[in-house]
Every structure is written in C-alpha cells, then in structure tokens.
Amino acid sequence: MERLSQTTSYSKTISANSAVLTPRAADGSHHDHSTHIKQPYVSRQPDSQGHIHYSVDENAMWQALLERQATQIPNRACSAYLDGLKKLNLPSTHIPQLHDIDEVLQATTGWQTAAVPALISFGKFFKLLANKSFPVATFIRRFEDMDYIEEPDIFHEIVGHCPLLTHPAFAAFNETYGKLGLNASKEERWFLARLYWFTIEFGLVGSRPDNRRIYGGGILSSPSETLYALSGTSDKQAEHQQSQCQQQPEYRPFDLLDVLRTPYRIDHIQPIYYVIDDLNTLFDIVDSDIMGMVKQAMSLGLFEPTYAAKNS
Ligand SMILES: C[C@H](O)[C@H](O)[C@H]1CNc2nc(N)[nH]c(=O)c2N1
Ligand SMILES: N[C@@H](Cc1ccccc1)C(=O)O
Ligand SMILES: [Fe+2]
User: What SUPFAM superfamilies does UniProt report for this protein, alphabetically (predicted)?
Assistant: First the structure.
C-alpha cells in the first residue's frame, strides 16, 4: 500500500469533477500541468497485531490539528462533548491506535471503532451503528487540507465523533439510528441521512446566540468550520450581514420534518445549521415516530437547495 506521507502531494486543486491526472513521473521530473491534481487519500492497513504504523508527517498532522482545536473548542463545544474528550485522554503527539479508543468506548457505552477505508456505503454504515461500532477511516488529512477536508479522516472520526460516543444517551441515539437505517428502503435512507447530517454531523445546541454550542462532529473536526459555525450573530443581524454578502451561517430551530426535507452538500462548509434547545431534544426524537416523519417528508418532497446541489 502506497505510504501516504511519501506520496508527493501536489498543491491542489482541481474542480471536483476533473479526472485525477497521473502524479509526478517516477524520475521526479514533471511537466508543468496547467491544472494541479489532488492526490487521493489511501487508508493505512493494520499489521497482524492490529497496529497501524503512521509516519512522522502523519503524526505531526495529528499534533497540529489537536493543538489548534485545543485552543478553539473549549468555549465552543457543548459540555457533554468536552467531558467525553477528557475521558478519551487522546495522545497529543501521535495518532492513537484504535484499540486505545475502544478501551474507553467499551468502558463507557460498550461501543467500539471499526477500521474502514474511507466513506462507506449507507448499508455498511447503518450495520456498524446498529452493532455499536463506529467507522474510522484510517488515513489523516494532509496539511493542505488542515482547516477543512471533504471526506471523513481519522481526525474527524476520533475527535469529531468519539467524545460523544462515551455519552450513553448519545450512543443510544446512534444505535437506534443504525437499526432504523438497516430496515429502511434506499429512498428512506436518503431522508435518514439528512437527520444524521443536521444532528450528529453538523448539529448545534442552545437557542440563544450567547449559549449556543457545537455538538456536531463534522464541525468539531474542522478548525475553520468550528470558528464559522458560531460566527453568526443574532438571526436578524445575520440576515443583514448576509445581505452585505458576508458568508454567515443561517440558524434554524430544529424541526424534524424540516430537517428531513433539507438538501445538503458534503463538500463545503455548511450554509445552514439546525439548532436544538437541549441535547435531550435529540434523545426524545429516538422515541418519536421517525419513520412516520420520513414518509411525510417523502410525500411533501425536498426544499429547494439554497445553492447548486451536488450530492444530497
Ligand atoms: C449516513 C450518513 O449521513 C453519512 O453519509 C455516512 C456515510 N458513510 C460514512 N462513512 C464514514 N467512514 N464515516 C461517516 O461518518 C459516514 N457517514
Ligand atoms: N469537513 C470535516 C470532515 C467531514 C467530511 C465529510 C462529512 C463529515 C465531516 C473536517 O474537515 O473535519
Ligand atoms: Fe462523520
């Protein structure tokens, strides 16, 4: 398997649809392509003891990301997340081994991680969650993608998701969500994906701007989105600033039916966040008739995307 750190990573960027061109010739020479190419990420395989040998560069990336987030997260993440982060007791200078994470997850909620190559299919994803296993893609972003990466890397899965997986009610939400997905049809799964997206991935909690905090793992693993997500001021001012074409997030009060009908794109910072009053709102949803709501959303159809929809 090609080692991530040895792959010559070209400065980006191609438009999302451009073909990935062949990298630098073996002898190091290269033709100056007018377009740059984005080296694909390749996940690392565990050795026979289940140990993954990361390179110096990859461990340095982890250290840089954790140091940056250590300065940005404390007064932006919700307290349940901060409690979980402390329990994980993550190493600061190197990427943790999955069995070290599993020890904490097993002891707190009976969960564990599952090494996966990258984004996995809905079917595999729901099956893992239904069995209290969380997918962890075993590669880490390069420095050029430090602030924001379009696909989940190990920093996203471990620092974004694992802290709240030590929280019993949050873990139960994930497990129930997985079981619902397992029994859902293909089309229903697309609607369920929006519930996950606007809560576990990109959810905010706290109805007033001054008490608003982040619980979404997709935000907390991105240094730039962590700052952006709470940068919106009061909703009125946000509208005004938006009219001044400053990029400001839109905050919407959480409504399950609205969430299920809201298209999203996974490849850029989110323009819309749904806000719950309290984490318990999330746990009440588990006891509500989610699939009934999905059927209602299907009959009502999707809202118009607020931007050119690519994949949602
Ligand atoms: C269903 C959910 O919205 C999302 O699309 C899933 C799909 N596959 C995934 N695959 C990985 N490795 N990590 C993830 O967080 C997800 N999220
Ligand atoms: N954008 C997140 C990673 C992510 C990708 C896709 C879905 C969810 C999360 C980050 O930079 O950390
Ligand atoms: Fe995620």
Answer: Aromatic aminoacid monoxygenases, catalytic and oligomerization domains
